[in-house]
Amino acid sequence: MLEQATNYVVELKQNAEELKRRKVELEGDNKVGSQDERLPVLTIRDMDSILEVNLITGLNNNLKLHEVLSVLKEEGVEVESASYSSVGNQTFYTIHGKVLYSRIGIETSRVHERLKRLIH
């Protein structure tokens, strides 16, 4: 038991060091300009008949949410909820929708490409 406890403490110490290293790395990424270069970020999750769209943009992005919602509607998604919040210089959007024709499904790669063209 003593050996297991010692191994566990060593493992915790290694994890703490790794987290400290990642923190320093992430703090370096938060410097002016570096974060904006990675924006916008778009992710789409397809969970059977539910579609979740997550989008992160900079505050200077002229995103028109109604255009995003129109693309989803054209692709056969009924938007059930859409929300956003701004933190620092970023805006986070979350959209939940229901696939209208669940037997047919939805081509998420096409939705992703259309939205990507719209936000870039």
UniProtKB/TrEMBL annotation:
<dbReference type="GO" id="GO:0000977">
    <property type="term" value="F:RNA polymerase II transcription regulatory region sequence-specific DNA binding"/>
</dbReference>
<keyword id="KW-0175">Coiled coil</keyword>
<dbReference type="InterPro" id="IPR015660">
    <property type="entry name" value="MASH1/Ascl1a-like"/>
</dbReference>
<feature type="coiled-coil region">
    <location>
        <begin position="2"/>
        <end position="29"/>
    </location>
</feature>
<protein>
    <recommendedName>
        <fullName>BHLH domain-containing protein</fullName>
    </recommendedName>
</protein>
<dbReference type="GO" id="GO:0090575">
    <property type="term" value="C:RNA polymerase II transcription regulator complex"/>
</dbReference>
<dbReference type="GO" id="GO:0000981">
    <property type="term" value="F:DNA-binding transcription factor activity, RNA polymerase II-specific"/>
</dbReference>
